[in-house]
Amino acid sequence: MSDPLRSIDRRFPGVPTLEGAGVRLRRSFSNNEVPLFDPFLLLDRFGSANPEEYLAGFPWHPHRGIETVTYVLDGRVAHGDTLGNSGVIGPGDVQWMNSGSGIVHQEMPQRSANPYLAGFQLWVNLPAAEKMSVPAYRGLSAPELPVVPTDAGGSVKVVAGIYGGVEGPVRGIPVDPTYFDVRLAPGERFDWSPHAGYTAFAHGIDGAGGFAGPDAGSVAPGETVLLGPGGGVRATAGPDGWRFLLVSGRPLHEPVAWYGPIVMNTREQLAEAARELRSGDFVKHRRPVVEE
Ligand code: FE2
Hints:
Elements: E1 8-12, E2 15-19, E3 23-29, E4 40-48, E5 58-63, E6 66-74, E7 77-81, E8 86-89, E9 94-98, E10 103-109, E11 117-125, E12 136-140, E13 147-149, E14 155-160, E15 162-163, E16 166-167, E17 178-184, E18 189-192, E19 199-211, E20 224-227, E21 233-249, E22 257-259, E23 262-264, H1 267-279
Antiparallel strand pairs: 1-20, 2-3, 3-4, 4-11, 5-10, 6-9, 6-11, 7-8, 7-10, 9-12, 13-14, 14-17, 15-16, 17-21, 18-21, 19-20, 19-21, 22-23
Bound molecules: fe (ii) ion (FE2).
């Protein structure tokens, strides 16, 4: 007998949060939810039509022990880091950054003719053995991300993982993540199977729909739902269609010690990071930052 379909276990409406130098965003889950979403640590959705709510951005700040994944839906975000990467990510682009042992970067939303900014930042944990690895940066422009049609008029943009035999370009990540942007036609049903034992969650973007199981009520735009244990994921779009993020990964089951943008396994490692930030020894691998 196959496992039952995964149903909604917990719902997270998102909490208005002021982050960076004064960016208004909605935080879906964070350190209060550890270890529910293991290996995922945090999901922020930024979205505003008022540049004053985002232009302050996220000036130079450190990360260690995690991967940060930025997915821009609308607007433009300029970035730069101590590996020497810099550029602008725009609508449909993804930045998958492994902070490893330490990176310092900035993420600055830009003013443009379109005042609207929208997107996500997801934090993916690194296994203990990879927390002090060499930092790595992947920038993927929208055309590099495959969009696979579904059977009934929808599509799946595959950032990481496999859908319909198509593998996303982000590969070799320790927690074996899946990251899909799913669009379903009105009433369309979508079936997909995460690996057994992997964590899975969804975040409503536009329209509405639901998942199989006892809590089959509609998932609203901006709402995050953690899917419980089981086998496949079955989503059904409402009458207006549904667009949602679907994310899955291998849980690490390791201790989490978290201080701001640094997530390690022990308090001693956090103290060491703080010491190194003060002494200037935090960044282990550096190329000069190129100012644009
Ligand atoms: Fe950051």
